[in-house]
Amino acid sequence: MIRCELKFGQGKTYQVVNFEIGRAWDFKHKVPGSEFPQPMIDAVPDLAHAMTTNPNLRVLVQNGAYDLATPFYATEVQMDALHVTPELRKNVTMKSYPGGHMMYVNEPSLKAFKADIADFMDRASKP
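-> structure tokens emitted (127 positions)
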């Protein structure tokens, strides 16, 4: 449908994984406030910096309980490593749903997922 009706991507090949780009990618990144590059990829220090810089920032983390691409427990471990004050930690909401990486293909999970996003947006938009 996407190629025939919408004429998107005609004559092009979709590559799921591009090892050539992966080999050339520069993964060096300095965490704000540090002069040294990170030894491995980790966005948690950047999130902590963003939350500290903007104490009004709210974070919603949603996971599929059976996700093998971004495992739920790994996300919990990462969020536990978030170096922010207990007051800022209250700005992080974590939700999990029955299902895998695309937990929203399960209709009950989709409904809960949407309701949680709507609730988060309502709460985050109020002072």
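The chain has a mean pLDDT of 88.
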